[in-house]
Amino acid sequence: MLIARSIALFVLAALLEIGGAWLVWQGVREHRGLLWIGAGVIALGLYGFVATLQPDADFGRILAAYGGVFVAGSLAWGMVADGFRPDRWDVAGALICLAGVAVIMYAPRDT
């Protein structure tokens, strides 16, 4: 159950961070305006809060593992939001990152 909660929190954090960054990008680079930028800043702030809800208490471990989720999530977001077509190397890299997430977060530990 803790693993499922952790994965759900990682997915939510990725949606907020990647979505927030995308909104800021759209506001600035695509000239959509301050409302887009403001919504992005709020989403980015919520991402920071969601990251604190992980069951593990080690900040470094959480952020290191989240990096892999961010990589895979960014490629997925690009596919959905911008029509990005990842090549086999993008997919292979994302899978390697997600394997790293699994090792960092969910490998058995001597406590």
UniProtKB/TrEMBL annotation:
Q: Which InterPro entries match?
A: EmrE-like, UPF0060
Q: Which residues cross the membrane?
A: 33-50, 62-79, 91-108
Location in or out of the cell: Cell membrane
Annotated membrane topology:
Multi-pass membrane protein
A Pfam family reported for this protein in Swiss-Prot or TrEMBL? UPF0060
Keywords noted in UniProt: Cell membrane, Membrane, Transmembrane, Transmembrane helix
Where is this chain primarily localised?
membrane
Does the UniProt entry include the keyword Nucleotide-binding?
no
In which family does this protein belong, per the annotation? Belongs to the UPF0060 family.
Q: What is this protein called?
A: YnfA family protein
State the organism's lineage. Bacteria, Bacillati, Actinomycetota, Actinomycetes, Streptosporangiales
